[in-house]
Amino acid sequence: MSSPHTALRVAAIVFGLVCLVHAWRLVEHFDVRIGPYQIPTWPSAVAALVSGLLSFWMWRLSTNR
Fold this sequence. Notes:
This protein is 74% helix and 9% strand. The protein has one domain (3-63). A two-stranded antiparallel sheet has the order 1-2. By secondary structure, the protein is mostly helical.
């Protein structure tokens, strides 16, 4: 296993976990607050989509020869 291959796999796993956390927030509807501001849930939908696509893309790149 080469170093770029391993790095892409690790990045894909990290982005996959980020996607799962954002999807969990969408399902459970828990609040996120930064100071006095409450963050709406729609950014989590965007973040879940983007991180899921990045995870899929990096995993595919790591398996191509």
